[in-house]
Amino acid sequence: MDEDLIAKINDISETLLITLYSRALESKTENPILIDTKAVEITNELNKILEKSDSQLHQNLAKGKPRKRLGKKLNAFLSLRTRKFDRYCNSFLNKNPNGTIVELGCGLSTRFPRIDNKKVTWYDLDFPEVIDIRKNFFKETDRYHFIPSSVLDFKWMDKISKKQNILFIAEGLLMYLHEDEVKNLILALQKTFPGCELVCEVANTFIVKTLKRKMWRRKFQRDFHLGKDASFYFGIKYSNDFEKWNKGIKLIDEYTYFDDKDNKLGWMNLFSRSKKLRYAQWLVHYRLN
User: Fold this and answer.
1) Same domain, 86 and 65
2) The pTM is what?
3) Does residue 105 sit in the same domain as residue 232?
4) Tens digit of pLDDT for each residue in 100-159?
5) Domain of 142?
6) Which residues have C-beta within 8 Å of that of residue 101, sequence separation ≥ 6?
């Protein structure tokens, strides 16, 4: 793999490395929340590049330390998130075995090999420079496709067949966009793919407001050794907030990372007693009629 490919991704896209390594590290633990053998394989290859990088983030990842403090808790949170997205996908395919799933802002997600029922049509969408990295580890087939595009350039929607029921998933994406961008995206999905489902991770507005303060934004970026553009820009207060944007947008259900009461969260499970902390980041599931 060409090491220059890693250097080409922007500050926000670089967060894909954190989620990838967290899944790989969790997979190696005792009683893992998630077993992601493909993530382990990819990180083993990337280590050869990252360990030689001048980036502190890259060096930390190569050492198996995505974050200096609470690293194991971060791995658990991100793995719980991925596991729940997997379960949403499996549930959709149980009802729609020949359906279509589109992963928006896929990064280095390894979901398709885990979920593939040999019938689903799958699209992984991300910036061209991210897809270039993916091509080193995944190959397209007649059912598995790459879309090298910004999620905000809606021409990508022309590539998606409307013949089957469709599930769109957005794991760790929407918070990095702005409200008008998220609204336009969801309304475009509703108009272009009426009746589709959307599962996405959202952040609370109080998190976004906190990160607007220079001190907290810099702390967030410093903790993860991220670039200056890596921050949260969009949040909601309630799970059904998208329903306000247009008739026919309906919340189906929600999920917080504390719902499973997983032992690996340890004392952080106490956060579930606070509605504000329980809903700092969570998942929402919608139908766009």
Assistant:
1) no
2) 0.94
3) yes
4) 999 999 999 999 999 999 999 999 999 999 999 999 999 999 999 999 999 999 999 999
5) 82-288
6) 89, 92, 93, 115, 120, 121, 122, 123, 166, 167, 168, 169
